[in-house]
Amino acid sequence: MKLSVRPEQRYFFENRRRHSSCCRGKPPPAFSASITVSPLGENPAQIMCPKCHRTVLSEVEYSSGLFTYLFCGGLFLCGFVFGCCLIPFCVDRLKDAKHTCPTCKTVLGVYRRL
Ligand SMILES: [Zn+2]
Fold this sequence. Notes:
Membrane topology: Peripheral membrane protein
Largest sheet: 3 strands, antiparallel
Pfam families: zf-LITAF-like (PF10601)
Keywords: Membrane, Metal-binding, Transmembrane, Transmembrane helix, Zinc
Main location: membrane
Oligomer: single chain
Subcellular location: Endosome membrane; Late endosome membrane; Lysosome membrane
Bound molecules: zinc ion
Mean pLDDT: 79
């Protein structure tokens, strides 16, 4: 019986034989990748998307969060009535920021102020 081995398989078997003599007993080398992930803030950040595996500049969508409501309540208590206490709902810097991938629209993370 003749065993046919394709060239790429032979390369694998030869490499395995070569390494089995020197690397016996040692754990396989761990896969190490250096991925720089900038912490998500209120501004668009460069981040690697876990779904499409691309490094993208995230799209930011602002939405009212706990901090926005507390700021509104604080303004109301300080005398900002007649709608002036609703100013925080118009200011993006007082809202939470939701980062999404511009390619596949996956939510990459949410930056909450509180
Ligand atoms: Zn993506």
